[in-house]
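Appendix B. Chain record.
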Amino acid sequence: MATFLYKLGRLAFRRRHLVALIWVALLTLAGVGAASAPTPGSTSFSVPGTEAQKAFDLLEERFPGTSADGATARVVFKAPEGEKMTDATHKATVEDTVQGLSDGSEVTSVADPYKADAVSEDGTIAYAQVRYDVSGMELEESTKDALEQAAEDARETGLTVEIGGDALQAVPHTGTGEIIGIAVAAVVLVITFGSLLAAGLPLLTAIIGVGIGVSSITALASTLDLGSTTSILASMIGLAVGIDYALFIVSRYRAELAEGREREEAAGRAVGTAGSAVVFAGLTVVIALVGLSVVNIPMLTKMGIAAAGTVAIAVLIALTMIPALLGYAGRKVRPAGEKSKLLGGGRTPKQPGKANMGTRWASFVVRRPVAVLLLGVIGLGAAAVPAASLELGLPDDGSQPTSTTQRRAYDLLSEGFGPGFNGPLMVVVDAKGSEDATGVFDDVSEKMGGLEGVVTATPAAPNKPGDTATITVIPDSKPSSVTTEELVHAMRDTGADIQADTGAEVLVTGTTAMNIDISQKLNDALVPYLILVVGLAFLLLIVVFRSILVPLKAALGFLLSVMAALGAVVAVFQWGWLSGLMGVEETGPIMSMMPIFMVGVVFGLAMDYEVFLVTRMREAYIHGEQPGQAVVTGFKYGARVVTAAAVIMMAVFSGFIGSSDSMVKMIGFGLAIAVLFDAFVVRMAIVPAVLALLGRKAWWLPKWLDRVMPNVDVEGEGLRALSDKDADRDDDKELVRA
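Structure tokens predicted for this chain:
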């Protein structure tokens, strides 16, 4: 591996014009594809294997042409204090609004509140249900403008008017936080390298890689049915790893220059050693992201594969474009320890020969391994405590900021019709083949309405053939509550009893039921996913480190950091700690996808630091150093770079906390805090403490396994042998001349 990458690095250095041309061409091609691609429609959200999805598919089949996936809007009206919506003036305003909305070209129906029994019992709140024939993402701007203008016209009469539903759904944006994150990364790179040019190389290559990845996703969004958050998450992860991978190779290049090597040779060795670590670190991230497909939720699978593709591009760019750009930079990229004149280069160090911070810290840990280990484990354990209170759900309008009209409409409907009105449950009854379908429908409606926690169950609404019907059930609890989840299970148990008695299939669906099914599916998939991803990465790390205990320690450390990160997410987004600082206006259940997504991404990123830091230690160990000294040597050369990489990754992820999308905000915070815990507590404290305690046992590998395993040579031992051969060849030439 190291020898192949060494040759690749030298080739890219020499043929830099060709390499740069290829990557610029790919960026241009992806950009043209993104610009010419059709506007993506709505993302179909399906969860195969769940009862809610089965019911939805049955509705598509038995109720054709109903635009089940079309956008909806609830225009909610509230009368001024002391007045009622049944007053003649207000009634006329609502009827005018309904009439105006009915004229829209994409509108399929508008329900008049006074004919649809959509007025609250106290008469103060009413709503008009608007249905469209296309999804919220496909609605024309003129249609959305007409909806908002209708609400504004009604407000002028003195009514409070808000709009709920997905008709005003907008593509999430990340705000200025992402730019701030990149700016912080730039500052860290300048401090790390002491050179503006060297600092610019990782940023440039990362931006090119993300540009290619995101443009490709945009170009294929319509064809592959990719959601708007897919490109945001791909850019988040791709930008972070892209900067880090390039950072490690540039750092190793400068270290090789400091040892007196020529620039082409230094580039080859940097790619051969640090590049090998990049390849395996990238592989762990790709395995973790692609492994999300085991959950069998298409949206999550597509997100994982798209992000994995961006990571793969980041690896390829780091291995090829970085050495090419180093060739262009020439002597402007200085050896390690030297700064540019602009940043104070040429000055005499105040304390020549003084050990750097990484060396001093590692020496302290090696002297006090038990104390450091206990402190790290106890600290992460304390941070993980809130994770025991984890409640899962999917965001709805109730989790949006109170400044949005969707949230205010949600609150008005809860006030007028009860909290469960925002999450109605739909019962689908398939009585095909039943002798008395109508009787079955009535029986289901009666039994569902009699369950504890149900406010009302509407009469059955059959399709034209009369073999299938829908019944709407309104709970008395809010959609994301445990009480509603228990009600859904009770309804399904009742449906199973009815099916046993009559043969009619009874299915419960709706957004709330779908969320419950997703949460259950994700919970069921978490353990198999952990076994798959951690197992594959464990085998990969055995090959990399040629050790059993080092990969085992890496996996256990990861579990500590991810549990602590989940605890922090619960504390902020569920309990409300520091919620104002994070811009969280509404606390509630944690997004269902969060645990499994964090496990996948954080595991991949955690292995990055493990590979980068520990390969330096192993490199020192196999070159003859004692185990404790090898730990110190690994920190001497790797701690500064790993610290910079972690700060950069945290800055990039933190930039997404400013997103308007609650899911992106939560993932940005979760990944940033996970990197903090993993890099600075696990990898910088627990790892050296454990290795110091294990000593030579850390690098133990059964002889039979050592014989059958491939030698990937991440440490670059083959390069040392190559150098010895070159030196012998040069000596022979000198003897011949003599």
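Further analysis of this model is presented in Appendix C.
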